[in-house]
Structures are given as structure tokens and as C-alpha cells.
Design a protein that fits this description.
Keywords: Membrane, Transmembrane, Transmembrane helix. This protein is mainly alpha-helical. 81% of the residues lie in helices and 0% in strands. Helix 2 runs antiparallel to helix 7, helix 3 runs parallel beside helix 7 and helix 8 crosses helix 9.
């Protein structure tokens, strides 16, 4: 009986893993082409029963984690490893394992969806709790995915130590950040009826705060 349950679990896992090959590129393409629609889609899907949610796309957190995994695999294939910054303690333990490093990257980048989700609740005057935070956080994971992928590839290119490639990586990073902030501004304005200027200032402040937290967490974990 235990063997049968194990076989059934493996069967389900195999199906889920193979389905990612279909639904990941579909979700990525839709998010790049229609980011605002995907944000609305996430909100709408969470109104359904749990077993009926995200049946035709990957769930947002899974999409973000797979995107970070893809970025990590591209880095490994390019042989452009992260600079060794951790020498002792927790940082050394994390960087010694590819899996630990991958989990850390997912955690650090998820700071952006988290901060923008909190900002949306605050701007809408809603109470912050586990239930109210889920919907905006899930939606934010969708648009964070393409940004994480492009910024990850740009950081890999910047390590080739070639002036032209480094400049191209910086330009691509800047364009990606502008795209991200633009989508966030449109989304916040539509949810709160703020003016474009006020929405952009709120988004920019949230992004800077998330970047500060990201950098501080990276330093404390990897630099300690």
C-alpha cells in the first residue's frame, strides 16, 4: 500500500513537472504581452475554489520561482558564477549549496511583490492580514517574473568584463526597471484612482524601499 501511494505521488509529480513545459512559456508570454490583464486574472482566479484556480496558467508564486530557477540555470550554463562574498557563517553555508542559493534568490526577489502588495493594501485603506495580503501578493508575482528573468540575465552579461556587453546589460536593466515601474504605476492608479504623478511617486518609493531591504538582507546574509 505504501508503495502504491508512492507510485501515485510520483505519477502526479511527473505530470505536474511536464505540464510546466507547456504552461510556463504560455504564462511568461502572456505576462510580457498583457501584464495588466494578468494582474486582473490573478485577482479573479483567487475568487474560485482552490482546486479551480489557475487551471490554464501557472500560479503566480510557482511562476516566479520557476523564473528564478531558469535564470539560475542560465547562469550555471554561462559559467559566470556569483562573486564570492561570503567567507564565514550563514553566508558561507548558503553559497556552498546551489539549492540554498536558489532559495535565497527567490526569497530576496519576492521582497518586491511583497512590498508592492503591502503598498496596495495601504493605498486602498484595507486591513493588513494573511487573507488580504494573498491577493495582491499573488498578482505581483506575475509581473515580477519577467523582471527577475531579464535582470538576472543582465547581471550575468555584466560579469563578462567587456565594456560593450556591460553597457548593454545596464541599458537592458534600466529598460526593465522602467517597464516594471510603469506597469506598477498603471496598476496602482487603476486600483486607487490616484493621479498618475502620485501613483508613480508611490511606486518609485516602494521600489526604492524594496531595493534597500533587498540589499540590506543580501549584505547581512552573504556579507556576514
Amino acid at each position: 500500500m505504501d508503495f502504491l501511494r508512492l507510485f501515485q505521488s510520483l505519477e502526479e509529480f511527473l505530470y505536474e513537472a511536464m505540464s510546466w513545459l507547456v504552461f510556463y512559456p504560455r504564462t511568461l508570454w502572456r505576462t510580457i504581452r498583457h501584464p495588466i490583464q494578468m494582474l486582473r486574472y490573478s485577482d479573479k482566479e483567487l475568487e474560485d475554489a482552490p482546486d479551480q484556480q489557475f487551471t490554464d496558467m501557472l500560479s503566480p508564486p510557482l511562476f516566479l520561482m520557476l523564473t528564478i530557477l531558469l535564470s539560475h540555470l542560465i547562469e550555471v550554463a554561462s559559467h559566470q558564477k556569483m562573486p564570492e562574498v561570503a567567507t564565514t557563517g550563514l553566508g558561507k553555508a548558503i553559497t556552498a549549496s546551489e539549492m540554498n542559493l536558489l532559495v535565497l534568490r527567490a526569497f530576496l526577489f519576492a521582497i518586491y511583490p511583497l512590498m508592492f502588495a503591502v503598498r496596495r493594501l495601504k493605498a486602498q485603506g484595507l486591513e493588513l492580514n494573511r487573507d488580504t495580503l494573498r491577493r495582491p501578493f499573488y498578482a505581483q508575482c506575475y509581473i515580477a517574473g519577467p523582471a527577475a528573468l531579464v535582470l538576472g540575465i543582465a547581471s550575468i552579461l555584466a560579469r563578462f568584463n567587456q565594456a560593450e556587453v556591460t553597457i548593454a546589460a545596464l541599458v537592458v536593466s534600466l529598460i526593465t526597471i522602467i517597464w516594471y515601474l510603469r506597469i506598477e504605476t498603471i496598476w496602482l492608479r487603476s486600483r486607487t484612482r490616484k493621479s498618475t504623478g502620485k501613483a508613480f511617486r508611490s511606486v518609485l518609493g516602494t521600489w526604492l524601499l524594496a531595493s534597500l531591504i533587498n540589499s540590506a538582507a543580501s549584505y547581512l546574509i552573504l556579507g556576514g
